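**Discrete fold encoding**
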Amino acid sequence: MSRPFRALCAAAAGACAIAVPQAAHAQLSLPGISVTADPPLPATGGSLTVPDTERATANIERTPGGVAVVPDTQFKSSPAQTIKDIVDYVPGIIVQPRYGDDARVSIRGSGLSRNYGNRGLNMYMDGIPIIISDGLVDLFEVDPSAYRYVEIYKGANALRYGGNALGGAINFVTPTGRDAKLVDGRFDVGGFGYFRAQASTGGVDGPLDWFVTGSAHRQDGFREHSEGNEQRASANFGYQFSPDVETRFYVNANRIRQRLPGEVRKESALKSPKAANPAFVLQDQARDIDSVRLANKTTLRFDSTTVDVGIFGVHRHVMHPIYQWLDYTVLDYGGFLRAEDDRSIGGFRNRLVAGINVHNGTIDTDQYLNVAGRKGTLASSTLDKTQNYSAYAENSFYVLPQVAVVAGAQFLHAVRDRDDRFLSDGDQSGRRAYDLFSPKLGVLWDVDPGWQAFANVSRSAEVPTFDANSFATPASSNLDAQTATTYEIGMRGRRPGLTWDVSLYRAEIKNELQCLTTSPFSACSVVNVDRTVHQGIELGLGVAFLQSVFAPEDRFWLNTAYTYNDFFFDGDALYGNNRLPGVPKHYVRSEVLYKHPGGFYVGPNVEWVPQSYYADNANTLKVDPYTLVGLKAGYDSGMGWSGYLEARNLFDKRYISSVAIAGVANPASEIFNPGSGRAIFAGVRVSW
């Protein structure tokens, strides 16, 4: 990141969430021309396996599409409670809280209908998958205070990791001992009984480095029966055998205990937002998770080629009393091989990224009757086996020093295999295999050192998850994979006092997977929708203004993320051209922050949904528009200690934060989650 842009980000207290071109790239000498090249990997001092924030930004800029790197300076000056605190100022991402740390995360309309778990996104931690092998992902294991930065790849722009989902990918990257403080700790308190503590340490001893972090928090919750507590720990240990060979081991452990308040009618959500659904209280519905993840990644660097190879394994035990009492264990395992080659071919720069991924696993599930929150009689028992094998490649050929033509493809072979061990209600065993090919073509133009333009056309494909592949009926066993062709054009860049990031896209989707809620006492019903269209605009803007008003080099910074979602059925036999429900058409997140050179900052922020949106496919019931106003202030000189005070939903607005979409809804439908009321948070961080 260039020095001027770093200064702007610092002035904004970490408000820069968009990926922008680098002004200080090295020059790659080729016969007769000079080509801008990425900064070299560190010869000494840095980590080979984990790029620092500057290197990660340079890497992601080679993508001809919507991408972003969010540095920890943006989300660690707040409660850093959920994924919403990380990505809220990245345009194109909608995060709709449900309860506790859980939320629906959607990029470009991915997984819109999911009311439990998230689908349509590939999620990684340090480039290693954290999604379950069948495609669902749980957000409870995401700890915002543990990461150095977060990479976001929208849509098929996630091909760098072999991602192939409509929504793209999010990669959470932890520090290493080579860029971590010896001691770093924080304590946060806030509304609705929120308490949180976190501490980390890191260091280097010759070729060995280490980083360890742990956090614990509890909250009573805004709503009845929404209390929870969580303990999370992460560590990585790296060893450099030479300046060109490094291996790193990862361990991650989580203990989650979270009660569920449940969805309610719209009237109840707005008039009595703290009330839980009585049925959820009677059944003591909850989601309790114990998980351990182990992984290794080794990086080898040759003259012009870097190779990453890794393996991982996950053990996750989930105790999940809902309308029935679910007790299941997930065992996932896999590995990856990824190579990146950057060289001159015939006097032209050529950059190739290629790899293979293996992600397999089992889900061993016993399902019991829920008797007032206790396990009753066994009602179902299944063993689900998943196989995912993919190969991918993306090649960037520079036809001009500043213009690259980018072509890529992914092939996925996936298997979903269910063994029904409870046969008194019939045999729901079954097996389905999918073979999916997804090409991509794009162009990337470095207009100047501070400005990039791009365009691409790509295909994505998603295999149904096991909650869809029940194999109980032909309708559920014959679900097709969701595929989409997406067209995208945009630009990103910076000038002194100005940053921008804009993408326009249109995704034409076949067999979109919808998970329609029928009642709070059953899982949603998954269907293929014949044809839908997701199109929109993603606009990020940062502007510095009123500089040196109260002190030399002070400034105000406007940071805005605007997302326009135009999603609709395309000539559907049942719903015609109705709008797709579950997400607002316009979503604005904006803040104005004053930053004093001494380290003090203060400013208001707003979350604005200016137009109502639908809760059902039939477009009969709407979610009302809302405006949430917040205010934060703090001190961070970059040395020693920092602190903040933040008010959220300052005017205690009653609103709907998320909806479990239905085919046809009515005022009695229990599908709404009320948003949290006014709350004040405060925190102190100490490091050296």
Remarks:
- Residues 3-11 form the longest helix (9 residues).
